[in-house]
Design a protein that fits this description.
about 425 residues, alpha+beta, Rossmann fold, 2 domains, 10-stranded mixed sheet, two-stranded antiparallel sheet, 14 helices
Length: about 425
């Protein structure tokens, strides 16, 4: 009969079960679990959901199912609107250890309902509240850990009430019993090939192995040295070792109506109080560039080379502008914008990929490189995948166009970031169980 030491040892090294929301084509899954051909130890997917609103054909779900489940019909993958899932009589989300997801940036405000004057309800279609509802409904089975991703401007939105949206997220997580830390991470600052800046939120149940450690820690020390994010992505120490703690007071409605704060790129919250500090990345390792991920020129289809007749349009769109324009109502104004480097430099990480990257039509935001033979071309789907650190050809599937594959990468995260966060979280979780 196994003794308690044996049981603790087995629990220490068991795989953590993961629920992946807003799964896209599986960026979190690849970072944490690897691919079917190259699995990583430590995590396993217990359940996943992907739904693209406003489209009849669910292309991302098609890729996810095919790449991770093949011809099998997985009962752990739901291609359904997450709002509907969160409201099902029987919640299909199983007990798990870690919930991950890159939820869309929308309006997180709350408002009193007319029929339930004392109640709070997220505005219709706001997906943060679906996450919140799922965690709340899981109750005692709520996950010990959360790993969430959003755009960097989340910390500053909305423009008319800076910091309100993030304040609501912090307060709602505090109400659910979580300790929270966050960091705005630019993947390129840590040697990755794309300049993609995103807010990463890590949350720990107060009674979880890591949560117990965080409760006892100095917030500033946690953020700069001992916490999972700091271990994964080191930073330079802050000048002010004792930043001011601010209490999130009031219910969600009052925070929605009154809260305003200028959040910095790094922060920590426990017991409903948070600190927010400015940190700088500390990295001295190898650095990937746009040039380092390019495929061989003989593998680039002709359609990706720019048409000579379009070059004037490309140069105009990429160039600086200072023009007088007129609105539809006749209002005159001066339109200004700076230049975009053209062609894109190969000795630096790429600019951020956005969803409109695909297609041959000239556009300011699309990447264009100059080849050794003097020709200009766009990036191929494989190169866009490599910039997001996905396996080559991950999004290739019959019925999926090159333009749609580019759209996937515009929506995706950089896999290397979640991989490093996952390793750090797992190591700290296991260490606390020793």
């Amino acid at each position: 009969m196994p003794n308690s030491t044996t049981k603790n040892h087995k629990n220490q090294y068991r795989k953590l079960k993961v629920v992946e929301l807003f799964a896209g084509v599986g960026g979190f899954r690849i970072g944490l679990c690897g691919t079917p051909k190259k699995l990583k130890r430590g995590y396993e997917i217990a359940w996943a959901n992907q739904w693209e609103p406003g489209t009849r054909i669910q292309h991302a779900a098609m890729v996810y199912k095919e790449k991770f489940h093949g011809s099998k019909e997985p009962n752990i993958f739901f291609n359904e609107d997450i709002n509907k899932v969160a409201n099902l009589n029987k919640l299909p989300v199983p007990k798990h250890d870690l919930l991950v997801g890159g939820f869309p940036c929308q309006d997180y405000s709350v408002a009193r309902t007319l029929s339930h004057a004392a109640g709070l309800e997220g505005k219709k279609g706001v997906l943060w509240w679906a996450i919140h509802k799922i965690i709340k409904r899981l109750d005692k089975n709520a996950p010990n850990y959360l790993m969430l991703e959003n755009v960097d401007r989340l910390l500053k939105s909305p423009a008319k009430q800076r910091g309100r949206d993030f304040g609501i997220i912090l307060a709602s997580l505090a109400n659910l019993g979580y300790i929270v830390e966050w960091r705005v991470i630019n993947a390129a600052d840590y040697g990755m090939p794309q300049r993609r800046k995103r807010t990463f939120i890590m949350a720990y149940k107060e009674n979880s192995p890591i949560g117990g450690k965080a409760l006892k820690s100095s917030p500033a020390l946690w953020l700069t040295n001992t916490g999972p994010i700091a271990k994964a992505f080191p930073v330079h120490k802050i000048n002010n070792p004792s930043p001011t703690e601010i209490k999130l007071s009031g219910d969600l409605l009052s925070i929605s109506e009154k809260f305003e704060y200028q959040f910095d790129n790094t922060g920590f919250m426990k017991n409903g109080k948070f600190i927010s500090i400015r940190t700088l990345p500390k990295y001295t390792g190898l650095k990937q560039t746009l040039g380092s991920i390019l495929i061989s020129g003989d593998k680039v289809p002709q359609e990706y080379f720019l048409n000579e007749k379009d070059m004037e349009r490309w140069r105009y769109l990429k160039g600086a502008k200072n023009q007088e324009r007129k609105s539809k109502t006749g209002f005159k104004y001066v339109y200004k914008e700076g230049p975009v480097t053209f062609p894109d430099p190969l000795d630096k990480p790429s600019r951020t990929i956005i969803t409109g990257e695909g297609g041959a039509t000239p556009a300011r935001h699309k990447h264009v490189i100059l080849t050794p033979n003097g020709k200009y071309r766009r990036l191929t789907p494989i190169e866009l995948e490599k910039l997001c650190m996905f396996p080559e050809g991950h999004t290739e599937l019959p019925g999926i166009s090159a333009q749609r594959r580019a759209f996937f990468m515009g929506n995706a995260l950089v896999v290397g970031v979640t991989e490093r966060l996952g390793k750090s979280l797992l190591k700290q979780h296991r260490t606390t169980l020793k």
